[in-house]
Amino acid sequence: MKFTGYDLGPFHDEMFSAPGVPRDGTKLLVDKIESLPEGELFRRQQQAEQALYDLGITFTVYGHEQGTEKIFPFDVVPRVIEANDWDNVEIGLKQRIFALNLFLDDIYHNQKIIKDGVIPREIIETAEGFLPACMGINPPHGIWCHVTGTDLVRDETGTFFVLEDNLRCPSGVSYVLANRSLMKRTLPEVFAASRVRPVDDYPAKLLNLLLRMAPRSDSQPCVVLLTPGIYNSAYFEHSFLALQTGIELVQNQDLVVENNFVYMRTTKGLKKVDVIYRRLNDDYLDPLVFRPESLLGVPGIMGAFRAGNVCLANAPGTGVADDKVVYAYVPEIIRYYLGEEAFIPNVPTYLCWRKEDRAFVLDNLETMVVKAANESGGYGMLVGPASTKAEREDFAGRIKARPRNYIAQPALMLSRAPVIVGDHFEGRHVDLRPYILHGGDVQVIPGGLTRVALKKGSLVVNSSQGGGSKDTWVLKH
């Protein structure tokens, strides 16, 4: 299969700098792909897809008429990021996570950033992710956001932008590890020759982070992963990470709180739990504090957390930083806490609660991407250039009814990467979700989840909206 005739379009292409001209870091990959016998790459693509089926690597789409369990589509042509580009990404993400952790600690304590007029109080207090029940809590070691998945995009110039932050329970890292395993088998020769930085040590790094977060150091900490159960869309990932890190996978019925300590039920009696990597949304975590009807949470767990007897990773309340209106203030947050300019810029953002911004957005809906402040997964979103008049009218009504709940951004010309379409390659838009671990020092995993909008022309990369993924190769210097 050749790249002859591959159309770059007006976009930044991740593999080619000009028609037929590979980027420095992709020359080996292009040469290898084009040297394969006719049909061989397609055969390897099919083998990779079969491996995904065999491994049971799935996600759940709720309410889908064709069934809920889906294999995450995978494209065998990797996305390559050169070392210098990655250096800049790493610097910018470390800066962002340090600042956001300081922001979270401030919001739940003295709220200096509000008192100094940087962010309006109303914006914080109306954010769905802001939890008054977390006021005054001091998480172990002062760390709120232990695991973050920050979504990045590139425009037509190749410049990286932060699209959104994910500080609650970011998912997808299991696909990063599975994709890498597949690629080592699919293109082993070029993988070895390309000097790709490893991601396989993520489970060990995650485990070390969780162990360091234990409130007490007098014994070997007990760490567990709390899952909502088998019907959760990311259950595969929960069980995968528990297996890879060697920690217990538990549900709420496996845990009990006594005297503000959390214990795990075992065949030998109760065992004290020190750290809980929770993959359960805040609202369902503790029915005594949040939703009383929750059958997934652990009664009293927030009391144990407040008392400093257990670490919850990520800490409840981090979702305030995921609010898309708060996102628009992150450059100011970085400036306020660190005295620095944001190294990776945000996508330019209009806040519909501001009268002037709202008027501009309503007049230009056909060129804008409109997002609900607390939605994810590609839901609650209008892609103006691909929308109908009826859809734009519907969103105009939503914006006018609840202006606080909407932001708008210009429709970027997202970068593209080649994917296999039948017997040839076509460009598809991509984003990137690197994973960042914060355990005192901040570590950025070299790579991340490259998501691909497999529908031709689509800008929506989410798996629930028909997206797929690629392995992400970050090259060494």
UniProtKB/TrEMBL annotation:
Top-level division of the source organism's lineage: Bacteria
Domain annotation Circularly permuted ATP-grasp type: ranges: 78-453
SUPFAM superfamilies, alphabetized: Glutathione synthetase ATP-binding domain-like
InterPro entries assigned to the protein according to its UniProt record, in alphabetical order: ATP-dep_Glu-Cys_Ligase-2, CP_ATPgrasp_2, UCP005522
Name of this chain's protein: Uncharacterized conserved protein, circularly permuted ATPgrasp superfamily
Species whose genome carries this gene: Desulfomicrobium apsheronum
